[in-house]
Amino acid sequence: MKKIVWMAALWLTAGCSSPDREMDRYVDRLMAEMTLREKIGQLNLCNAGDIYTGPSQTSGTGEQIRRGEVGGVLSLKQMSKIRELQEMAVNESRLGIPLLFCMDVIHGYETIFPIPLGLSCSWDLEGIERSARIAAEEASARGIALTFSPMADISRDARWGRMAEGSGEDAYLGSRIAEAMVRGYQGDDLSAENTIMACVKHFAFYGAPDAGRDYNTVDMSRVRMYNEYLDPYRAAVDAGAGSAMASFNVVDGVPATGNRWLLTDLLRGRMGFDGLIMSDYTAIPEMEAHGMGSAEDCTALAMNAGLDWDMVSECYLDHLENLAAQGRVDVKRIDEACRHVLEAKYRLGLFEDPFRYWRDKSDTVYCRTHRDFARKLASESFVLLKNDGVLPLEKRGRIALIGPAADNRREMSGTWSLAATPDRYASLVEGMRRAAGDRAEILCARGCDFTAGSEAGFDEAVRTASRADVIVVAMGEGVWMNGEASCRSRLELPAVQRRLLERLLALKKPLAMLYFMGRPVVMEWEQEHVPAILSVWSPGSEGADAISDVLFGDVNPSGKLTVTFPRNEGQIPIHYDALPTGRPLPDERNTQKYLSRYLDVSNTPLYPFGYGLSYTRYDYANPTLSAPEMEPGGEIEVSVDVTNAGERDGDEIVQLYIRDRAASISRPVRQLKDFRRVHIPAGETVRVSFTLPAERLGFYDGEMNYIVEPGWFDVMVGPNSRDVAKLEFELLAGK
What we know:
Layout: H1 2-12, H2 19-32, H3 36-41, E1 44-47, H4 49-53, H5 60-66, E2 72-74, H6 79-92, E3 100-103, H7 116-120, H8 125-140, E4 146-147, H9 171-186, E5 199-203, H10 222-229, H11 231-238, E6 243-246, E7 250-251, E8 254-255, H12 260-270, E9 276-278, H13 283-286, H14 295-305, E10 310-311, H15 315-326, H16 331-347, H17 368-381, E11 383-387, E12 397-402, H18 410-413, H19 428-436, E13 440-445, H20 458-466, E14 470-476, H21 495-505, E15 511-516, H22 524-529, E16 532-535, H23 543-551, E17 618-625, E18 629-630, E19 635-644, E20 650-660, E21 671-680, E22 685-693, E23 699-700, E24 706-707, E25 711-718, E26 725-731
Parallel strand pairs: 1-2, 1-10, 2-3, 3-4, 5-6, 6-9, 12-13, 12-14, 14-15, 15-16, 18-26
Antiparallel strand pairs: 7-8, 11-16, 17-19, 19-22, 20-21, 20-25, 23-24, 25-26
């Protein structure tokens, strides 16, 4: 322990200069003691695979740690092994540099929140920030210091499985959520024992792959990059994200992993990022398949592009020394990368106390306070898509719960819940029985699997449903059907589930569908035939109780879609903020051929961005502007009356959109620029006001300069992107 004690003493006696100066001096002194091999070792983020299967002391990873050839370890949950490895690094390596332990803590640690796409549908920025804070508190109590989150990728293609991990299709909302999550993870003091470092990913444009297929090519103009995709990454960087991850896809023909324009010129230069940049899993050697040359060539490309940390591939360990000797990689660039890794550890306080993330906080992880909040936030994320009077259910009589998600604890957690403990979570039938008590009998039958074609369980399911007064079906996507490497070309309900649903509908009983999903799905048939549909996403560890809260009306649903739902796959990509066409379709009933339209389906989506119903009704009236003109650099106030015209209290998400009527480049038909989540008691009216500054009216021009042009703007306010009241104002030109 002598070496690390010396280092801590150096840290503590650095004087009264600024923290950055103290860090610089500390890292300078440490790096002066390091060999080139040890510096390269810090650039190796290794997989804990061999540690899972054998004793850490005798594993290959253990030997690498002793030699100073590991900078961090990925996805290890066992606290005993995490501590063992840290002790090995601190006590048995030459310089005693601590390890950085990382994990995909995407939507919770053991207290699991809805998948990020579901969370975004709450439009609750404070709640989302707190969910990240809770995730940090739990993960840090188990030795984790860095999470690979938030995913800031904008996606408009529902075929892409990883849409589940993001915040939808809109850059403004995505930006607000990205910065909220960074604040939640990192708090006010990154070196505190209950905060963890955020990693903004995947830089960049990973959510726009050709054909909606994971790891596939991305190709777009710079104008589109800047105006439609970059803002959420920038927001996360501005919020102080300590690390960033390069994406798998190409950008301008060069893989992001080895793209100098992307990582150095844009991320570090234009966006001012000063943290740690890492690869995605084995992304460096995968550039060989992109046609970038040998593994050694790809290693040089990545290092020279500005990539600091190699996740798992060990290409840096294998090739960097030779590349430096050949002059293909400058040792100064290796030093720079090593510095970024050491600075991350310094900011996390690991040099001061390598064991700061090991503490007896068993009462923190999956505690009642965290669970109660997860339950509340889950209920806010559910989106009521249709309701012909079936919901809310009464707690009486017999209720049949049918479907593959009816009695399945694993389905609650959803994708990317690596630390989840499903055995501790309630299944949906358990939650409904708990909610109903002895006032209603909850019958249950699985009926079928998510995709397997067997109908062996149909008869039992139909018999069960026949005995009930009302039927609830729990169907949709299984947890494995969305997330990474789970892209789909067909998005309708799997055939076996559809056949079971048809059998249940034939009973002519009141029926409500709980649709589990990780993306927009094709559900035009369900919209036509099913009386009530509630999207519950993958709701998290407390999902069973949260769903029951909404089903029985103890909570009024308030979620609104952050993605557009297509009528069929042929409409994809579809998003609300499309650019206008020179031959617009003025009316869906218009049959003229030479207009921008389909021959076989409407242009309109099944459900628009921002859409969501409630158990009450909200009326919008009296939209006003504070002035008909806006001065350059000024602002304007937009106000509207929102009345809860029903008999239930509820939360409404009021949305503000604009359109720039004429500009130097084509601008979208509408763009979200603000929103408010407001609580409105039954029978009351709330005046909702927005302040719209001139700066928010701008865009990036063809030279990538952010400009605000004078002219006329439409401003729209309403409950979703389709149903809006429109006003207008003029932004005056400067003198």
